[in-house]
TrEMBL record:
It catalyses: a (3E)-enoyl-CoA = a 4-saturated (2E)-enoyl-CoA; a (3Z)-enoyl-CoA = a 4-saturated (2E)-enoyl-CoA. Keywords: Lipid metabolism. Coiled coil: none annotated. Belongs to the enoyl-CoA hydratase/isomerase family. Transmembrane segments: none annotated. It comes from Quercus lobata. One of its GO terms (biological process) is fatty acid beta-oxidation. Its EC number is 5.3.3.8. Pathway: Lipid metabolism; fatty acid beta-oxidation. SUPFAM superfamilies: ClpP/crotonase (SSF52096). This is Delta(3)-Delta(2)-enoyl-CoA isomerase.
Amino acid sequence: MCTLEKRGNLFFLTLTGDDDHRFSLTLIESLIFALSKVKSQAVHGSALITTAHGKFFSNGFDLAWAQSAGSSSGAIDRLHHLVASFKPVVSALLSLPMPTIAALPGHAAAAGFLLALSHDYVLMRRDRGVLYMSEVDIGLTLPDYFTALMRSKIGSASARRDILLAGRKVKGEEAVRMGIVDSAAHDSEESVVEGAVRLGEQLVKRKWNGEVYAEIRKSLYPEICGVLGLVPKTVVASSKL
């Protein structure tokens, strides 16, 4: 499951427990509820930090639940249900009226990788954890919003090729060189969260208007926002005009 905590203007969304944080329908619903709560409590100068307990950030969808349907068609229907249910999580993060930071304590695979990329900043550990898109290895095609987000957030065509077509497992320092994450200078679960807190505290000091921030973010990523149905709008919040 997940918990939500507020410390000053920093929100902490944490995937709890020591498992691999597979996205079940229950966990997805919990994430959507938590993000709606963050949005409702946002003020100018807020920021969100998303992290997890244990050696995984998230290992993706709950494929065991999908496969337990008893038939191939039933498993496919369940997988499609998970894909559709997770889409609002990505939409909520891309439209959240504040900076967002993913602090990865360990592995982020498939939809877990996508959750990390849905944030504005991604911090990894130096000593543990990989980014991995497993779909080519396990024989699944990618949902449209997965590939749209990858194209929006990973600028290098060769990096996208290696991740999506070669199933490459990318460690922290290499992920920094590839332009996927912002930092991999941490060597424990605690230190990666501490690094995220330092970054979050710098960002909240700017006291940006959250609505303006969210709309500028949407304008940066028109492809994924179009796929998600996020319609940009013009916001004028300056008193200097």
